[in-house]
Fold this sequence. Notes:
Elements: E1 2-4, E2 8-10, E3 23-24, H1 28-44, E4 57-58, H2 59-69, H3 78-87, E5 93-96, E6 99-102, E7 122-127, H4 129-138, E8 148-151, H5 154-161, E9 169-174, H6 175-180, E10 185-187, E11 192-195, E12 203-206, H7 208-211
Antiparallel strand pairs: 1-2, 1-3, 4-6, 5-6, 7-9, 8-11, 9-12, 10-11
Amino acid sequence: MRECEDHGYFRDEVCxxxxxxxxxxxxxxEMERLGRQMAGILRHGKYDxxxxxxxxxRTRDLISxxxxxxxxxxxxxxxxxxxxxxxDPKGRYQISGDTIRATYGxxxxxxxxxxxxxxxxxxxxPASEDEAEIILEVGLKPSDRAKVHLSLTYQDAYNAxxxxxxxxxxxxxxVDRCFDEGYDIGRAGKTVFLCDQVPAxxxxxxxxxxxxx
Length: 213
């Protein structure tokens, strides 16, 4: 991670805009370690920091807790956190004033109040064949997370499912029908959308070739 004086933070060897090296901030190991700590605190309530009902904690409390429990991260400053957030390709975190929160991936129950406008007509979810069969009968409900996580594109869902499955089955979610039935969907990260649950009649199996027709 580096910072260009003219173009801000970036994760490449040189600034993608002007080609300058910029100022060094963190190496890959430090970025990964910081990301894991932030996820633990903001998604799962690690260290029991004060958190409001929307999932925001004070950035200075986050930094103090990380440094206290990880003495080797004594170098951590607010600009390191800001850099990680601003360059995150998935939009995992949101900074508001002097507070920060995770936008998705929570295992704790929160009222995130995500924007529900301009949601695509169709979103996607990966499952195994056995899971897909059950979901098509009873609908989609949270399992290890507080919310159902849906993907922006077929490929996003396939990539997410491939982490645990060799050949994930991709389910398509009828967004308009979800809203009509009273199940709102909110935009969380850049490619992630959240909802409390999805009724079975809003779900179908989709194959990649259908997207190219």
